[in-house]
Amino acid sequence: xxxxxxxxxxxxxxxxxxxxxxxxxxxxxxxxxxxxxxxxxxxxxxxxxxxxxxxxxxxxxxxxxxxxxxxxxxxxxxxxxxxxxxxxxxxxxxxxxxxxxxxxxxxxxxxxxxxxxxxxxxxxxxxxxxxxxxxxxxxxxxxxxxxxxxxxxxxxxxxxxxxxxxxxxxxxxxxxxxxxxxxxxxxxxxxxxxxxxxxxxxxxxxxxxxxxxxxxxxxxxxxxxxxxxxxxxxxxxxxxxxxxxxxxxxxxxxxxxxxxxxxxxxxxx
Length: 269
What we know:
- This protein is mainly β.
- The chain is 11% helix and 49% strand.
- The chain has helices at residues 183-188, 213-220, 245-260, and strands spanning 11-21, 24-33, 36-39, 47-53, 63-70, 75-80, 84-86, 94-102, 107-110, 115-117, 122-131, 136-145, 156-167, 170-182, 198-205, 226-232, 235-242.
- It is globular, with a radius of gyration of 18 Å.
- The termini are far apart.
């Protein structure tokens, strides 16, 4: 096996702090390094930050670190300009870490477009969120296994996805997803994926989260994918799986509209 020199691997990160001032939310400070950039299209509501990966994707051994803070009473949406592509890894996995902080009475939404795992991809991803007791946090993570438009329907690789969410310094949500080897073989099993090739998790944490459950279930009732949604302890979680990324995205859009009362970021169009 060919050894990949460390100097050809990408190291990048973004740190940003958002503050509410004069009835508007602004980016108070932004730090960018490597090939990662954060851009701010004009929006009618809050402050929208769009992440741009100038490298066009993530390869094995690459590292990306994101750190975002939404100050008190701020309204922040973070997304990506396109789906993130995770390329085949020769040796080391790609590593992505995300830290989110939501201050008092703030609204923070992490709404990236899909992550596409090429066959042979290896990805280790970590999400840590800390929020005030009266903040609102929405997280969407969608995965697509294989380049379906290119006919790549058999996918092997490795994925480790770790989530930790704290509210008022108390751990309220934790999960670890591990899947490796013959990923499509696992997804083809009736009890695992029923031949699904796209999956998504939606997590909404807010004082009124449980009251949104019936709205979310109502809009997903006719969604073109399999889904499940539940709410407890000030949280709402929905899981989706579909053979089609396009059908899954349509369902995510419906759920977001029910949760947030507005359309997803414009770059999703």
